[in-house]
Design brief:
Length: 237
Amino acid sequence: MNRLMYDGMPRDEAAAAYEAWLLGKRPERGAIIACGPSLCAAPALPDIAAAAVEGEDGARTALDDPLRTAAALRNFRDWRRLPAGAAVGVSAEGFLVFPAEDFTMPEEAQPLAFPELLDEVCTDKELADGLGCTAKTVQKEAEAGRFGLWAKRTPTGWLLVRYAAEAIDKGEEPPVLPVNPLLLIFATAEAGALWGRSAEEVRSAAAGAGHRAARLRDGERRRAGRTWLAPRAAQGT
């Protein structure tokens, strides 16, 4: 899923619903609907008659095949492509699995993009350079939980949200954001795991090597020392 749209609700609410889905939670407001390669934040789930799914709390389905329903729910929760012809949505009330033909992206839908976040996520070394300390100092503070949700460990080190970490370093409260950038920006090994590719394949794509169709373009990657950073919605998805 690499096309994120929203319609009929404020952008901040759409982003908050998206973050809830990324965290494996139900949105408090609105709904997230996955259909084909697209993901849409909408005010509510489609009004489609469906039956409760046995063993799935709060899930309903309009599909006749229980196996396709189970696969669709699993892929939706794991941020993977859905089975052909299936669509899935989630709201505060629960999940809905239904035929993809029953959902049409609204003509008024607009992209829900976060292009600035690629520059706002940094490695521990980059943050250390900005703060005038060593990378080991940043790593120890991140390990101790000083940066809270604004830091995450990767196979090659720590990634941090630059402006949030800098605010914490000054003793200030970090800004409140509808989506934590660390849910959207990944180092090469993380991106590979998400996209079902090796870290080497992602590095090659980011560096401009490999098949032309698989290469990451400007705005889809940033070099950060020994690793590359790429957004969740990059071409690799």
